[in-house]
Design brief:
single chain; about 260 residues; alpha/beta; Rossmann fold; OB fold (Dihydrolipoamide Acetyltransferase, E2P); 2 domains; 5-stranded parallel beta sheet; 5-stranded antiparallel beta sheet; 15 strands; about 25% helix; transcription; DNA binding
Length: about 260
């Protein structure tokens, strides 16, 4: 039997990386042929590469997982779809009876292993069966679920000297990545340290309230006093005595302000 191929589609880089590594451990023979960061890229890869399985995040930019799955239904080659979701088990307990599976965020290795076993059994007993009936049923169930309310950070544990402090996110002016740490600067001019990488931290912050203005800097939008440019066209954000550079790639954030 030829190897089973799969595509991973999720807009969170850390989750894509974690799922890829976890699949390599629980299912070494599975061939990951593409890793996609949005729904449009996922659909293009599915059409081109015709994988056997797609691990598909429900919430993605460009096209969400629901839209991608609906497009898959129209194709002659229809892969099995495993939805990756932040919905809790109570909300999606109806999926348990479905041949197409789901994975909850954060990923659990034993649950992933069970999912892979189910897929292997599906291919072993019904290698040519279309996924359409299951996919249609699952899409119908998904459409009836209530909207997800994102859960963002409200408190952060950070160190200063030998002490650990509990800081409200509302008190934060900006985060700045250093060599091994991320520094937190608060509105009372205090500085704290955390070990969480800036990329990972950014995923836990409300994007309406915090913007990444530089590869090493994330600021609280409400604390920005003004944005200015120097004679060379370099842009800076000023906030409570701090002057922070804005990378050229991020200057579009402030267009029209």
């Amino acid at each position: 039997m030829t190897s089973i191929t799969a595509i991973i589609a999720d807009d969170e880089p850390l989750l894509r990386h974690h799922l890829d590594r976890s699949l390599a451990e629980v299912w070494p023979d599975l061939e990951i042929v593409a890793s996609c960061s949005d729904g449009k890229q996922a659909l293009e890869s599915i059409t081109l590469l015709k994988p056997d399985v797609v691990f598909l995040d429900i919430r993605m930019p460009e096209l969400d997982g629901m839209a991608v799955a609906n497009e898959i239904k129209q194709q002659s080659h229809q892969p099995l779809v495993v939805f990756v979701t932040a919905y809790d088990e109570y909300a999606i307990n109806a999926f348990e009876q479905n041949a197409i599976d789901y994975l909850l965020k954060p990923l659990n290795e034993s649950r992933l292993e069970a999912c892979c076993t189910k897929i292997k059994q599906r291919f072993a007993h019904q290698p040519t069966q279309s996924a359409t009936p299951d996919l249609s049923q699952l899409l119908s169930q998904l459409s009836q679920l209530p909207p997800l309310t994102p859960q963002y950070l409200t408190w952060i544990k950070a160190s200063r000297g030998e002490d650990i402090h509990l800081i409200s996110v509302d008190e934060v002016l900006y985060f700045k990545a250093e060599e091994k740490y991320v520094s937190i600067y608060t509105d009372d001019n205090s500085e704290y340290l955390i070990r969480t990488p800036l990329k990972e931290l950014l995923m836990q912050l409300d994007p309406e309230h915090f913007w990444k203005i530089h590869r090493s800097t994330v600021v609280k939008v409400a604390a920005i006093e003004k944005v200015s440019k120097d004679f060379a066209g370099r842009m800076f954000v000023k906030m409570l005595g701090h002057k922070l550079p804005v990378s050229r790639a991020q200057q579009s954030l402030f267009k029209g302000m």
